[in-house]
Amino acid sequence: MTRFFVAFLLAVTFGLRAVSAQQSGAEGVWVQIEAHPDIPVAEQRAQFFSSSLPDVQGYALGGGWYGIVLGPYTRADAEQVLRVYRAERQIPSDSFITFTRSLGRQFWPQEGASAALTTPSLTQPAAAPAPQTPAVASDETPAQARRSERALSREERRGLQTALQAAGFYNATIDGAFGPGTRRSMADWQSFNGYEPTGILTTSQRIVLMDQYNAPLLSVGMERRLDAKAGISADLPLGEVAFSRYDPPFAHYDAQSDLGARVLLISQKGERADLFGLYDVMQTLEIVPLDGPRQRNKDSFTIEGRGNGIVSYTEAALRDGQIKGFTLVWPDGDEGRRARVLQAIKSSFARTDGVLDPAEGAGALQSVDLVSGLEIRKPRISRSGFYVDRSGAVLTVAEAVQSCTRITLDNTYRADLVSQDSGLGVAILRPTQPLAPMAVAELHLSEPKLQSQVTLSGYSYEGVLGAPTLTFGTLSDVAGLRGETELSRLALAPQDGDAGGPVFDTGGSVVGMLLPDPADGQQLPRDVSFAADAQALRNVLEASGLTVESAPEASDITPDELNRRANGMTVLVSCWD
């Protein structure tokens, strides 16, 4: 009664939206729950689900398969239906989202079938469903089923246990032995699917179970692909991806639908150093999110990344002077299908003769933001900073560290936020590992002279040039426009990436830190900028327990010496999602 009432509530919630999805002209979104190669079985299963769920329909899927789906819904409603029904165990755990373009001829409801068969009344209280007879009549007695079961190979028995595990009914060892645990899981599966719970699967029930298990692979068109140029053979989801181009060391198989799946085949000649280099490069790519386990052995590696709406898995191995492997990119939230597709690729992956020619794809698009046609991961924002103590503490602007999943220094070293002063707009970072900076800021605490020359060091183009840029200007005022004594006004024209960079006097001492443009909508003249002065910076640093080096009185230094100090002290601060 409880499960039927949940279905009734979802029907009330989503029923009108399903109609709207049809009438709006937008492509419908469906929840596919099963698929079968035998249409009488598919019709019986559709009838079984229709007894307790609304919006049950059946469509041909192509290739002689017939799918049972719920819908159509909007995308958000389909995801909610999928989540609730799977949690309530009213539909198989490997059910998934699909789209109208994947569906062919409708076979359920059959012509003339009552609409009441599939849709509970929205105006009458829900009543408990009548006791159900098995959806598919038993084709064998328990004794006959046990005899047919004895003819199964050990591998077939293991396959049934794997299918029961994938459906959420079995959680023990996959050993091919049908002990009490396996029998209980079989009985639970039979009850869930409307069969008599004997604990012994008949021949037709074994077919239904394996059809359910294989439905996720069917839905993405898993098919054997031999890429002769790459020297790789594997089962790939060719209903969702198609060969696009060669861009060594990758053969690109790009998305063909809104699902957004992608596959890369990796193929190149190389040695261990090349394998390790590939391992490092893969982790800089947009398709490999930062979070996830990574493992590198002497002749192979695996990388998993989760984030930004995708899950990525890469594996590669060195054998006989050839590096081969693959990357699977899949949308987050479709874990059931992703796991099955990944398992199928891994188990079917085979090396064939040949390796991808480095000359392939010679006419491919080139860009500093691309590696072999793949986008390099870029931070959300990058600003400048500078070292303020000998262990690598960094002072930067507060806007560079807001809501970051990860903060890095020079795109290499992880850093933690120690403190920030929202009033002044500055932040202090501490690297997660001790660093030994080539130069550390010496703060000049005496008031500098008006109209004196100053030099700004910063990553003007947010790291594109690989080194800080020097921008020259003058000190226009020792206060802000409203008389703020903690600020200095500069006459120079910086870029956004320069914010957080140190401002030097002619003796190489730090007299301030460049602040970003005002965020209040003001448009200042191009050559007007502001810096937090050295005394204000010292107060912030000492409040956080850092020892500050004060600049001695010194004469002017040469441009080469100023450039050396700036390069050794200035650091790129990046904020990553």
Shape: elongated
Query: How large a portion of the residues is in β-strands, by DSSP E?
Result: 25-35%
What is the number of helices? 11
Helix coverage percent: 25-40%
Helix- and strand-based class?
A: alpha+beta
Average pLDDT, to the nearest integer? 85
Strand order of the largest sheet: 8-9-10-14-13-12-11
Summarize the entry for a quick read.
With 577 residues, the protein is of the alpha+beta class. The protein contains 11 helices and 31 strands.
Name its key features.
six-stranded antiparallel β-barrel; seven-stranded antiparallel β-sheet; 11 helices; alpha+beta; single chain; 577 residues; 31% strand
How would you sum up this structure, described in words?
The two termini are 45 Å apart. This protein has 11 helices and 31 strands. A hairpin with a 2-residue loop joins strand 12 (300-307) and strand 13 (310-319). Strands 8-9-10-14-13-12-11 form a 7-stranded antiparallel beta sheet, with helices on both faces. The protein has a 6-stranded antiparallel beta barrel with strand order 18-19-22-21-20-31. The chain is 25% helix and 31% strand. The longest helix is centred in the N-terminal third of the chain and has 22 residues, at 2-23. The chain is an alpha+beta fold and 577 residues long.
Secondary structure elements and their pairing?
Layout: H1 2-23, E1 29-36, H2 39-50, E2 56-62, E3 65-73, H3 75-87, E4 96-99, E5 106-108, H4 142-150, H5 154-166, H6 180-192, H7 203-219, E6 222-227, E7 232-237, E8 241-247, E9 250-255, E10 262-269, H8 272-282, E11 294-296, E12 300-307, E13 310-319, E14 322-331, H9 335-348, E15 350-351, E16 370-371, E17 374-375, E18 381-387, E19 394-397, E20 406-409, E21 413-421, E22 426-431, E23 442-443, E24 453-458, E25 469-477, E26 487-491, E27 502-504, E28 510-514, E29 528-533, H10 534-543, E30 549-550, H11 559-569, E31 570-576
Parallel strand pairs: 23-30
Antiparallel strand pairs: 1-3, 1-4, 2-3, 2-5, 6-7, 7-15, 8-9, 9-10, 10-14, 11-12, 12-13, 13-14, 16-17, 18-19, 18-31, 19-22, 20-21, 20-31, 21-22, 24-25, 24-27, 25-26, 26-29, 27-28, 28-29
